[in-house]
Amino acid sequence: MIMMTSSPDQTRSLGRRLGRFLRGGDVLCLYGDLGSGKTTLTQGLAEGLGFKGRVTSPTFGLARIYHGRRWSINHLDLYRIEPEQTGDIGIEDFVRDPKAVCVVEWPEAGRGYYPGDRLELRLSHAKGGRARRIRATALGPRSRDLLVNLRAG
Ligand SMILES: Nc1ncnc2c1ncn2[C@@H]1O[C@H](COP(=O)(O)OP(=O)(O)OP(=O)(O)O)[C@@H](O)[C@H]1O
Ligand SMILES: [Mg+2]
Fold first, then answer.
1. What pTM does this model have?
2. Closest-lying ligand to the alpha carbon of 131?
3. Ligand 1 in contact with 130 (CB < 6 A)?
4. Which of 35, 60, 95, 144 could form a cystine bridge with 138, CB 3.0-4.6 A?
5. How many domains does the chain fold into?
6. Ligand 1, closest atom to CA 33?
7. Which residue intervals of the chain are DSSP H helices?
């Protein structure tokens, strides 16, 4: 499924719509270059999950935990993390947390830790300016359901 947004607000709003369908155990991997909108999308996801505060980039903190209405949000950023380090930061506990939705920016280094059924979102700059292209790939039945809901809602 391919989506386009033309402003940060539109990207947040897409995240908000998807966020409403998420539940504990869901894992979302957000791929894309610097500034492609991963954190902006996560702000929307957290809003959709009922979190009222500010979501900031965890780049140098690696992980932040937000509390939504019903589920927590484990927000990870593995930028500049080497695959050998992922065990040390306890990625497994963040990813396999049944009470939390786990959102991972720069997920490359964590390969091998993610559940088979996850949603992959690839963000990229499209024709300059504020346009972004977001390609969603569902890797199992649960994530396929999420996309069906997103398309319908
Ligand atoms: N359509 C859009 N969607 C999302 N962000 C946009 C859009 N248009 C412009 N922007 C701007 O692009 C930047 C995206 O930054 P953001 O922190 O979300 O990216 P990121 O992918 O998380 O980057 P990083 O890899 O550094 O973590 C913001 O400054 C945002 O205002
Ligand atoms: Mg970011």
1. 0.97
2. 1
3. yes
4. 144
5. 1
6. 25
7. 8-19, 38-48, 91-95, 141-152
